[in-house]
Amino acid sequence: MSKIWLIIQREFLSRVRKKSFLLATLLVPLLFPAIMGGMIYIALEQDKNVEQRTIQILNNSDFLKFENSSKYKYIAVEGNVDQAKIVFSESDDFAFVYIPKLDIENPKGINFYSKSSPGISLISEFEKNIERQIRDVKLLESGISQAVLDKLKTNVKINSFNIKDGEEKKSSSELISGMGYVMGMLIYIFLFVYGNQVMQGVIEEKNSKIIEVIVSTVKPFHLMMGKVVGVASVGLFQFMIWVLISIGVTMGAASYFGVSSGQQVMMKNVMEDLSQEQQLEAAEVNPEVLEVFNMISDIPVLKIATLFVFYFLGGYLLYGALFAAIGSAVDTPADAQQFMLPIMLPVIIGLMGLFMFVFKDPNGVVSFWLSIIPFTSPIVMMGRVGFGVPLWEIVLSMGLLATGFVFTIWLAGRIYRVGILMHGTKVNYKVLAKWFMMKN
Amino acid sequence: MELLEVKNITKTYSTHTALRNVSISIPKQSIFGLLGPNGAGKTTLIRIINQIINADTGSICINGENLNANHIKMIGYLPEERGLYKKMKVGEQLVYLGQLRGLSRKKAVIQGKHWCKKLEIFDWWSKKVEDLSKGMAQKIQFISTIMHEPELIILDEPFSGFDPVNANLIKDEILELRDQGATVIFSTHRMESVEQLCDHIAMIDNAEKILDGTKKDIKNSYKTNTYQVEHDGDIQLTESIYEVISQGKSENDNVLSSIKIKNNSSSNELLSELIKHTEVHSFAEKIPSINDIFIAKVKGGGNE
Question: Is the pTM of this model over 0.80?
Answer without folding.
Answer: no
